[in-house]
Specification:
5 strands; two-stranded antiparallel sheet; disordered N terminus; 598 residues
Length: 598
């Protein structure tokens, strides 16, 4: 399903993108040539897609285009500047298309395309490229994950991979140069959110090159290769890791330890950055896809916190606990019966929950993806500052499934009462189902298939947690309290993210607010706060998206009455991949009209 884009001959540096020409109906090949808005749209989409693949070879690999498998992207500030100019040319070309001559579906695509390009240009204007890492990950950890996205079926595939390993020092130095510029102009990740970021790199630079995660493919060279080729590739892999990859990571760790972290800004608010108030306003729009102000988001968060707290109190009493809310939270955080004894136990519990939900999916969806998923631990080099779990997708046509990751680090901070909600969010019916369906969609443009709009995706993940109630989960009151803790956590994010970035909240205020209102471990309250500090705005997408999806479901149920079919509703929500919330609203209004007429 990941179709390779056709090779185009258009030059980006030209004055414009020529529109395709088609023969007028009835004139044959020799007829008068005319241009249609649909063909103009197709032309600019194809051209930008080809450009996108060339500019980001790693991305091209993940979507099944292997023409650039021996290359790594160019990441200098000059390259970012050039890419912004190219993006503006695509936006100008899209702006010349007569929107009213497009079909309704094409109008949605054009609007989404323009919004994506405008977002890219705005990010450049705010110099977001100077912030290539955050509290728990970045370009450096992303590179270490590359082996799972590769096609490694032939000797040439391995040689391509070796070329990428050898290119990594240049790639690393370009990112370091960006970060140095960030230090010069005061655009850095806040220092407090980077505690331990340098030491977390140690697993990526082991003394033994064969212990590196980037050497892993060479331990599994196909037995069908000639013995000489296998021996040569394994030796070349060891040398590339030892001579290129490990020194580059060591250089980055030294830069973080001695230069970047000591020189990073002491403020935590995005509004403290140059033009920071406007930047945070832009981030609200990006991550919610709605024209909201920080005050509106903050107020929504406070209202949701109050609503969910009342539900939590009711569930708490159902357990028979007679003390206060704070005492109940303290009991949950300290009672060993709620925590896994081993990483294997945590993985098995998560896998069992996921498998039970697999059996429920046909009752909730009419369309299911072909790609399977697995359950695996968060890699060691990410685990200390990483979230409790996350979905990590892979190309559908590759040899790897999608993965639901569970963090087996610091098991005393990984409560089992949250595990049902976490699993439904990250695996099924949450991110795996949603992302795999989007990737397998054949009737939307490529850029939409592989786009991820956070308000939609994370809103769907949080809605999926709630959907577990209908599917028969959360029968244990502690697990139901865990579900509410996760809902409260996302509501509290609206409060603490806006609080820290525009209202003067301190880091400790955020940690304390999360600790007082949720049953998250104190470790998670801290790592989550650092995530919000270093990735402003993203945390807003979950609750805002979920509220919209639930609002649209209530609208459909009320309008359709007995005709409402949740399977068809869910298919309608996911039918067009990741979309802005206003586009989703249009989709569901169309769904309601269609269902009413059935």
């Amino acid at each position: 399903m990941r179709i390779r884009a056709a090779v185009l001959t258009m030059a980006l540096a030209g004055t414009g993108i020529a529109c395709r020409e088609v023969s007028a109906p009835g004139t044959g090949n020799g007829g008068v040539k005319i241009r249609t808005a649909s063909h103009e749209l197709a032309t600019v989409l194809d051209a930008e897609w080809e450009w996108r693949l060339r500019e980001n070879p790693q991305f091209a690999t993940t979507v099944g285009d292997h023409r650039y498998d021996d290359q790594l992207s160019r990441e200098s500030i000059e390259d970012e500047t050039r890419r912004s100019r190219d993006t503006q040319r695509f936006l100008d070309e899209a702006g010349r298309i007569d929107r009213v001559r497009l079909t309704p579906a094409e109008q949605v695509t054009l609007d989404m395309f323009r919004a994506e390009l405008e977002d890219r240009i705005a990010a450049f204007r705010f110099r977001e490229y100077l912030l290539p890492i955050n509290a728990d990950s970045g370009f450096h950890s992303g590179f270490a994950l590359m082996p799972q996205t590769l096609r490694l079926e032939s000797v040439k595939d391995y040689e391509n991979y070796l070329a990428r390993l050898r290119a990594f020092p240049r790639h690393m130095d370009e990112y370091i140069s960006r970060m140095r510029k960030g230090l010069e102009v005061g655009i850095t990740v806040p220092r407090v959110a980077l505690q331990g970021a340098d030491t977390a790199i140690a697993p990526l630079m082991p003394d033994d090159p064969t212990a590196s995660p980037l050497y892993a493919p060479f331990r599994a060279t196909p037995l069908t290769f000639a013995a000489g080729d296998r021996s040569r590739l394994e030796a070349a892999g060891r040398a590339a890791v030892a001579e290129a990859v490990t020194p580059a990571y060591a250089r980055f760790r030294e830069f973080l330890s001695t230069t970047y972290i000591p020189g990073a800004r002491e403020t935590i608010a995005a509004s403290a950055l140059p033009d920071g108030t406007a930047y945070y306003g832009y981030l609200i729009k990006r991550f919610t896809t709605l024209p909201l102000t920080s005050d509106q988001v903050h107020a929504t968060g406070l209202a949701e916190v109050a609503r969910i707290r009342a539900e939590m109190e009711t569930v708490m009493r159902s357990t028979g606990f007679t003390g206060g809310f704070a005492a109940f939270i303290q009991m949950l955080r300290t009672d060993p019966r709620f925590y896994p004894r081993t990483g294997e136990q945590l993985l098995k519990e998560g896998a069992w929950i996921a498998k039970r939900m697999d059996a429920k999916l046909p009752a909730l969806f009419g369309t299911l993806p072909r790609q399977p998923y697995g359950v695996a631990p968060v890699p060691d080099y990410l685990a200390p500052k990483y979230t409790a779990g996350r979905y990590n997708g892979n190309p559908p046509e590759g040899s790897e499934p999608g993965y639901y990751w569970l963090n087996t680090y610091a098991l005393e901070t990984r409560p089992l009462y949250n595990l049902e909600a976490l699993t439904l969010h990250e695996a099924v019916p949450g991110h795996h189902l949603q992302v795999a369906l989007a990737n397998e969609a054949s009737d939307v443009p490529k850029f939409r298939r592989y786009s991820y709009i956070s308000a939609f995706g994370e809103g769907w993940g949080l809605y999926s947690e709630w959907l577990g109630l209908e599917a028969g989960f959360y029968t244990d009151p502690y697990s139901n309290f865990g579900r509410l803790t996760y809902a409260m956590w996302r509501a509290a994010r609206l409060v603490v993210d806006t609080g820290m970035h525009v209202k003067g909240w301190t880091r400790q205020q955020s940690i304390d607010y999360l600790a007082a209102n949720t049953a998250l471990s104190l470790h998670e309250c801290t790592t989550e706060t650092d995530r919000y500090i270093s990735w402003p705005g993203q945390a807003l997408s979950y609750k805002i998206g979920e509220l919209k999806i639930r609002q649209l479901r209530a609208r459909a149920e009320q309008a359709l009455g007995a005709k409402f079919d949740r399977r068809r509703f869910h298919d309608a929500v996911l039918a067009n991949g990741s979309v802005p919330l206003r586009v989703l609203e249009q989709q569901i209004d169309t769904f309601i009209k269609s269902e009413s007429a059935r």
